[in-house]
Amino acid sequence: MEKILQVNDLHVSFSTYGGEVKAVRGVNFDLHKGETLAIVGESGCGKSVTSQSIMRLIPEPPGKITKGSILFKNKDLTKLSEPELRKIRGADISMIFQDPMTALNPTLTIGDQIMEGIIQHKKVSKTEAKKQALEMLQLVGIPSPIERLKQYPHEFSGGMRQRIVIAMSLVCQPEILIADEPTTALDVTIQAQILRLFKDIQQKTGVSIILITHDLGVVAQVADRVAVMYAGRIVEAGNRREIFYKGEHPYTKGLLNSVPRLDLDGEELVPIVGSPPDLFSPPVGCAFAARCDYAMEVCERVYPMKTALSEEHYVDCWLQDPRAPKPIKTVISTI
Ligand code: SF4
Ligand code: MG
How does it sit in the membrane (predicted)? Predict the structure, then answer.
């Protein structure tokens, strides 16, 4: 499948009074054309920082991409100037956040806001912009769009506002849409509608989607592939079935055991005990070791190498690695 975005060995740090927080520590992934890749993990795992780095939206300083590349259309986004980035943001790569109110201006009608984006990026007349704004509202399922264009954000429900934000993000037909917790603020029924809308739009436009979420229920509904992040790294990635049915990393298993599943009626939910490590001084070995029931001596000392379990399924865990020292508890000193 065609790769539309390639993130290679991305490292992002933030300098603070307490020291340097290493929020993203060597993230690698490809995004394929027309797919939905979910990046999942607990808050603070670096998933939002990763997605904001793609758009170069992390405040620099205190944030800094310290290493790695983000390739889009033969360009390394980490190397572009602010004017070059401005051309890409919105037009080629667009982003949607959790709270639609922060993306909407409360003092302008939604018609004016959608049209402003169209006029700014496409340099078309007001009449043409209005026509396109109406088409967009139809695409995202806003009823009576002609009347709705004249209304202000507060006149819409949360779910409708998120639909409008999605419409605004699509006006320039971006190739990549990054959605950071786009349904977290919405109730479950509306959440399902918005997720269906993403799928619908993807079928109609072919847009590639990166979905950032802490919610495996959301992942199950829309993702083609899943990357599980922990303490600034992707610890397991695979297609949706592989992650849900053959997830091998103890952290992935922990996440799966901590959410209710309809197919396993009556199974007890087990929360993951403990908390993620401090990213001021992240552990040298596996960052999950302190919470892992299977942790071995080697885990704390050496970060596990990537092990391929299938063409698309990768895991960073000594348990799965045939290169692990044998017997597995033996101390190794040469890596
Ligand atoms: Fe657990 Fe070791 Fe695997 Fe880390 S590498 S998840 S500590 S078994
Ligand atoms: Mg976040």
Answer: Peripheral membrane protein
Burial of 265 (C-beta count, 10 Å sphere; 0-12/13-18/19+): exposed
The complex scores an ipTM of 0.96
Q: Is residue 65 domain-resident? A: yes
Tens digits of per-residue pLDDT, 228-254?
999 999 999 999 999 999 999 999 999
Question: From the CB of 317, is ligand 1 less than 6 Å away?
Answer: yes
What tokens does 49 get? 């920082």
Q: Is there a domain that residue 232 lies in?
A: yes
Tokens of 60: 């620099």
**CB of 288 closer than 6 A to ligand 1?**
yes
The burial class, CB within 10 Å (0-12 / 13-18 / 19+), for 204 is exposed
Amino acid at 36: T
Which atom of ligand 1 lies at the shortest distance from residue 295's CA?
7
Report the nearest atom of ligand 1 relative to the CA of 300.
7
Pocket test for ligand 1, best of 229, 234, 288 (most atoms within 8 A of CB): 288
- The tokens describing 119, both together, are 């006029």
- pLDDT of the residue at 334: 44
What are the tens digits of pLDDT across the range 294-303? Answer: 999 999 999 9
Atom 5 of ligand 1, residue of closest alpha carbon:
317
Q: State mean pLDDT over 40-63.
A: 94
Instruction: Tell me the CATH number at 9.
Output: 3.40.50.300
Q: How far is the CA of 248 from the centre of ligand 1 (A)?
A: 10
| pLDDT above 90 for 45 | yes
Count of the separate structural domains present in the chain: 1
Is 111 within the bounds of a domain? no
Would you place residue 331 in the very low, low, confident or very high pLDDT band (cuts 50, 70, 90)? very low
Ligand 1 contact via 256 beta carbon (within 6 Å): no
Residue 293 lies in a domain: no
Locate the ligand 1 atom nearest the alpha carbon of residue 289 and give its number: 7
**Which ligand 1 atom sits closest to the C-alpha of 318?**
5
40 close to ligand 1 (CB < 6 Angstrom): no
pTM score, whole prediction: 0.93
The domain in which residue 35 lies consists of 3-92+172-264
CA distances from 67 to 80, 224, 286, 301 (A): 14, 28, 20, 23
